[in-house]
Design brief:
Four copies of one chain form a homotetramer.
Chain A: E1 11-16, E2 30-33, H1 42-54, E3 59-62, E4 73-77, E5 83-88, H2 91-102, E6 106-107, E7 109-111, E8 124-125, E9 130-131, H3 138-156, E10 165-167, H4 182-199, E11 205-210, H5 215-229, E12 235-241, E13 247-249, E14 252-254, H6 260-263, H7 265-275, E15 285-291, H8 304-316, E16 323-326, E17 350-351, E18 355-356, H9 358-369, E19 373-377, E20 381-386, E21 389-395, E22 406-411, E23 418-425, H10 432-438, H11 447-456, E24 460-466, E25 470-475, E26 480-487, H12 498-502
Parallel strand pairs in A: 1-22, 2-3, 3-6, 7-10, 10-11, 11-12, 12-15, 15-16
Antiparallel strand pairs in A: 4-5, 8-9, 13-14, 17-18, 19-20, 20-21, 21-26, 22-25, 23-24, 23-26
Helix pairs in contact in A: 3-4, 5-7, 8-9
Chain lengths: 512, 512, 512, 512
């Protein structure tokens, strides 16, 4: 049982907040989504509204722009079956992107997959059958891409030109791109990049959208190709997952986590490769997918340790990357079929029913943290200086065999009358997975069960006065904490005495 | 400092949930409000909406129906000052009661105070100057009462006939009724009760609305008068406050609390007096005001001990009383002037800014408790039987000198696979007063401070499996806990393993 | 151009409102919907919210309960492809019906079509590919039906038992049921009806859900079968469309309308057949689909004449039928693919973008009309008696060659001081199709264009005093009018003079 | 009866839209409000929300900042009555301005009236008793002003410094300023202006807030004083009302309207006076109140002619004035007591119950008109050039003796395929006063009556194709029309034919 803790097993750390650390907080630049067609759903939008109201991502990326359910590519055929005209239908795309923009989130466009009607083969991926073969005729593909972008420019004006454009998804896997054919992908990239720029040179274009398989050779070959053929390229994209191969049982997978010292190895290597080229040195890397596990049936995603691990990544990834898009914001997601239960190890920050998972708060905390003057960064906390105080995030990643409380004491250069306000998400304060487990893991929770789960998934807020030149945070295993240390000027009202207010006694009756 | 607790100072209690206790849960029948004219305010309605969405009271009672700000009584005078006509203006009354009824709450009408224009004197009460003298001419008063009730019948139909009607407020105090003139009040009651019944016999009428000063003689005299003069009377009203005279400092008062054994003494005595009369035996008592302190500047109101004490009262008052109306639902209240700070010891369940106080949850918990088969009632908990389980409320009233944790173990007649879900409001989980104090007691909190205070004022939800025939609750000092013990049938999905989900390890790399 | 009218071409009619007419207003019992999977969409729910807030249907029926997108029927297979278990997934069904019930609308369940995995063939219907073949094994089908109904009973309790259940859709067409195989359908009905009753006898079950092809023989054969085999049957279902075969042009069809004298012929014949059987006499007929045109690409649906024609049907169909479900409430609908434009002749009462079509108001007006004492019914109006007045609906069906204004004068048995308030929907006051046409028939209207269209689609409200024992309505071509004639008691305030208020002059300055 | 029109009495006007007219559209810079304390009311905020969502004013000005109901000035006194401390209470002010700013509207601060506690006399104004005497000690006043502004700077930061500040209201009337004492006002202005600038020099300060009595001598004396004493002055304020002395009957007044040629005479004279001073030439004039009538019981306010007259003023006042603040946005207003009826001739754009009056749309239309290239301005219309088209407002002021339809034909320099979309508010399309009259002038309309009134108060939207180089508007008496003439590019879908869609016939059955 994880809720037990070996008595006295505290870990104590002492830091000093006087560094000047480069910290690029790109936590909210982009987030992932289930395939775009699912974005028409009400539950999806409800989850997105929650995410945007508390976190506020700027862009969103997902698969399936050209999937049949969004119905963009259409053919008009006579009774004889002869093609009379190609039509593009943007009815659903408008519904989709209108609702995104209303919620303050813009597309990070992933071009893919292939409409069956113009595909060269039938190979597909996922429950929802995205076709992963090259086009029969690249002209059809280019026309589709151009028509879509032109429509976006008409509908959204200059804003549309700020939507980044990425070509395809993980072509280095045969499952996503027929035979993982490198030359064919480079052709696709080439045709697409030129077609996009032809529509409007302001569109920023990137690739190769690979994951961590053969990634170093793919990256070098891609950059060579782009350079040698003078293909437009504005940014590099890749993915990052930080687990071992999961052990599966039934529908679910149980992986282990990459140790911290190796967690950002792949992006660091990509940075090094890019910077190796004179032409590309310093070019932006956008991690267009990242998470611990790459499978939407990994219960790890729903746990507190996931939140703590992601905090670590959010504190680090900005060193090399312009963005890192958590895969995904919500659990309306169908790659392996429709989930049978609200908690099922999906990628989402929010479980179906609108229940925030612990990792939701990892992003909320880094969103609230914002930018600023970083004075401390360690493997378990980050601290920024504010006007008269400090704010930061701390976390305590605790694998099953290393479950200690963590006590962090931070020495400050200055003492003042301050208050430390903490928001704590840990296994006892904000753990909807455990509550759901305890009530029997209901497949279809009743309305009141869902409300209970939602109500339980809130950080605990606490406060304490701090007068000296240090403060201390105590984190239970897998806790994440957002804190603000702010100056206090007391405005006590005439005759108000807090201590006396709470120190109430019973009346003593002597003769009654 | 109250946040410290003497180590090992636990109190342990052992109960058995197999009684058959009479428990009348009338906690939500009625609640009090600041003077009715304040009910036009947006902030008032926002607070009421919160209260209704979480608690759901059925009736609401407050002073000032005939106060000048509601503008009901109007006179049309010529340039010569001669009265041409009396007019009744219901523009504001309609706005007020329309908004109450939209929120599902009906008036418990208190008739008073006296419009200055028809009053016999100028004595008034409160910052808002309610005139507390008898009418110059009782016919004017009766006409005003009748016009108002007739208007309500026109506007709200049969519903209006279900609004209880009470005559005046605390006439046993000279401050509320000139000279506390008993005979004059009986006359007022007599004239009013007959006038009300003349409009519609369905209106239920009650009095004498007294508080605990000379209350036994007032009550007997009142009942004698009503009996002897055959005046209509449908229910008895009185008030109940449970503190000593407060020690004042500046704007604030610091009282002590009536010991539990005496807390309901006044209503018990009233019950006995009524039942002494053949004519009135068993007649409903409506406690049209109750609280710990009778002053709107008692910081006690904002504390956790207040919530715990009120839980005790809610578990007991139904024995003798048909309702007990907490004075008041919110802090838009002006009897002593406009508050200078959000926390100021006001009567409200909700502090200005929409911040629930601990006592808010005392009512929410008894509202959620509802009715049912009571199997245990003690001085610190109440348990009802449900379908396959139990639900209840527990509390730990802890004066400053008796601050112990309380461990309650309840033995059950039956064992089963169950889950215990608790919602805990205590000094560490839901204590907005302390947070406000720690951040400097800001007079005019910023929007983000108010949001922080609101977010902090939530119960902590926890769960644990219970398999045997007993369960245990642990309550910190002044905690109140709502709990449900419900049967669990596990619906574990194919391959899902909770323990394995949370027991994640780091990957071990042997050669990397 | 239709907006011109030949001068002086008024039609005048004179009626007397003193009949006692049987009028069963079942206009709001049921409405149709696009396939259920579309009900997950936000735009669908937004349209439904509008419909429910203004009209308030009680039930809703649509195809596709068992379609793959709702994902109910699932198979668990090993890597060898061997079936390990059948699973039913109600995640999406719960989302769907939860949102319906929140909007106050209950399912009228249509069981169909066949999950591909248990179908005997591959024939399908519609863009969205509903499989229309019998099950390979009827036991699989019965298990699916039973599992679904049992789940509904668990989730919605007694309410679920009030959902009517219909077996399949239009089996008399080969497109909807392989070979329109009558015997096979009777088998399906037999197995299904018994399976349903086995779950809970309170479920009401009906069929044969046929349209107007071979309908008389189908109906008799069905009733014979049910009677001879003692199959449960609680009500009869059929469809009704009132157009000729449309002339098509591109995507669209242009039909003519059935003359009024023949419009309800099919339901009258069905009534006669049923009443011919001793066993079934008087049994409820539910018209589970009706409209003018049966094609979702008939611009007629979006016109004012459609609204007027539907008013006629709503005034008549209750004579023989317990309900008549307009096909459909909204334009999120994919039978012929995703619409390219907001107005495209879809079935919906609401066009995409939330724009009410004229026919929306036909239903709103009959919803507002409600039940009551019918004193007049003609081919162009219906009048009910109210407390002190009258309310009714009038319409002026005006084919292109018969475009006259219609002046209806209704003589009343009683004169009184009254006001006639009219809400008029006609080609000039509420004609969003024309406005959309005038602004260029935009495929993807901008937000402001959509708002303009929505704002334009409101009835014009007018009033006039009526003092005598008659009143007159004037209807432009294809107008529909809801009217209330209500008693007026003037409450003129002191010194207020309406005529003087509006008769303002300029100041005359003689010497300035 | 006004609804009759003499046949053939059309007025025809022909204009050419090729001018280059200076048109300053300041219609939405500021609006008036009932006394600030009323701003705490929910109904007030509901009306303001409606106004802001459709019109969007930038500032709001009203009386009573220092009135007792806002409770800013407070004194702390001992039991002996001796003043111990002056306190400022901003609890209500924060509620008020927070809610304004949430709705996007900023204060235009009017400093006044005098708290009774620091006033030199007891003279007051209005039902709500604003004290209109100078301070006993100007230091108390200056301290109050400074404390208030400092609080606003703390709460709202830089935004607060953009709130314009005006000193007092109509001191040229003895009713608003004791004895209309000119020298005393100049002293008040002097002390106040210096006190304001001492707090923050960014505050812009203005006066003398006079109405049209002795206005020319007041204005000159004020400017002389300010110049001679080097008192800060950033802008000039005055008021404008355009009626004769009303004839009164009971509670109501019936005035005549100033002819158009004289309507802006007062502001023109003020402009001339200011520009006469070298020091003040070109200084902004803010008309901090304007309307037709200056009395809140003038039924004229609720009529269509009021809307038409206001359109004229909105087209002209920008010539001389930086703003002109319509007095007032809503009918929560108590200067003459609480209204007895929803329509009572109040100043509001919105009647109580949230019913827009015709004049509401005068402001909405000028808000929608916005700024731009003015190509035509006459006494009955204004036209701006847009990208490819035109937009404008037209009105037809029709006193009782001059009720003609007005036909305006505007010649354009360019012909194109365009659509003319009009929004018409006139006596038949949007006249809630008439509807309220017809239903009996109910004092306390039921919920459904209020909804009817609200639904009736919408502009009628119509469209027509325009192909030539001119367009024509037809306006009924007292109509106001907003129009847009926009280019049309038809996007007709494949096979869609509008004319054919609406030209439906009955099916002809030859042998049935």
């Amino acid at each position: 049982m994880l809720s037990k803790k070996i008595a006295g097993s505290n870990m104590k750390k002492q830091y000093t907040a006087n560094q000047s650390v480069t910290f690029n907080n790109n936590a909210t630049f982009c987030v992932g989504t289930g395939r775009l067609g699912l974005g028409l759903q009400k539950e999806y939008i409800d989850q997105l509204r929650l995410v945007q109201s508390e976190i506020g991502f700027k862009h969103m990326r997902g698969h399936g722009l050209f999937n049949e359910d969004l119905a963009i590519y259409q053919e008009r055929r006579g009774f004889d079956g002869v093609l009379q005209a190609v039509e593009y239908n943007f009815t659903y795309l408008d519904l989709l992107f209108d609702s995104w923009l209303e919620l303050g989130i813009k597309p990070f466009i992933e071009l893919g997959f292939m409409p069956h009607a113009i595909a060269s083969g039938t190979q597909d991926v996922f429950y929802w059958k995205g076709n992963v073969t090259p086009p029969r005729d690249y002209a059809d593909w280019a026309a589709l891409v151009q028509a879509t972008l032109r429509h976006l420019l008409i509908r959204y004006g200059d804003t549309a030109a700020t939507f980044p454009v990425e070509v395809w998804n993980e072509p280095n896997l045969g499952g996503f791109w027929k035979d993982a054919d490198r030359a064919e992908y480079f052709k696709l990239y080439d045709v697409t990049a030129r077609a996009v720029k032809e529509v409007d040179a302001r569109f920023r274009i990137g690739g190769p959208a690979i994951c961590g398989v053969d990634d170093t050779t793919w990256m070098r070959d891609f950059l060579d190709y782009v350079r040698d053929n003078a293909v437009p390229l504005d940014f590099i994209t890749r993915h990052l997952y930080d687990i071992s191969l999961p052990v599966t049982d039934g529908r679910y997978g149980y992986p282990t986590l990459t140790p911290l010292r190796l967690a950002t190895g792949e992006t660091e290597r990509t940075r090094a490769i890019i910077d190796d080229y004179d032409e590309f040195r310093g070019m932006e890397i956008h991690v267009t997918e990242f998470n611990t596990s790459y499978s939407p049936r990994t219960p790890l995603h729903d746990t507190n340790i996931n939140a703590a691990y992601i905090c670590y990544l959010l504190s680090k990834l900005g060193d090399d990357c312009a963005s890192y898009s958590y895969w995904t914001f919500g659990d309306i997601f169908e790659e392996q079929g429709v989930p049978f239960t609200p908690f099922h190890g999906g990628f989402g920050l929010v479980a179906n029913g609108g229940i925030p998972k612990p990792t939701f708060y990892a992003f909320k905390f880094f969103s609230d943290l914002g930018d600023g003057d970083c004075v401390l960064r360690t493997d378990d906390c980050i601290v920024l200086k504010t006007d008269g105080g400090y704010r930061g995030v701390a976390w305590n990643i605790s694998p099953a065999s290393e479950r200690d409380d963590l006590e962090i004491t931070v020495a400050l250069p200055d003492a003042a009358e301050r208050v430390l306000v903490t928001r704590t998400v840990d296994e006892t304060t904000c753990n909807p997975l455990k509550l759901w487990h305890d009530i029997g893991e209901p497949q279809y929770p009743s309305k009141s069960q869902t409300e209970l789960l939602r109500a339980s998934a809130k950080p605990l807020i606490a406060s304490q006065p701090v007068t000296g030149a240090e403060f201390t945070l105590t984190l239970n295993p897998n806790a994440i904490v957002y804190f603000e240390l702010s100056p206090v000027v007391s405005e006590t009202d005439w005759g108000f005495d807090y201590e006396r207010s709470v120190a109430v006694e019973y009346t003593v009756f002597t003769d009654r």
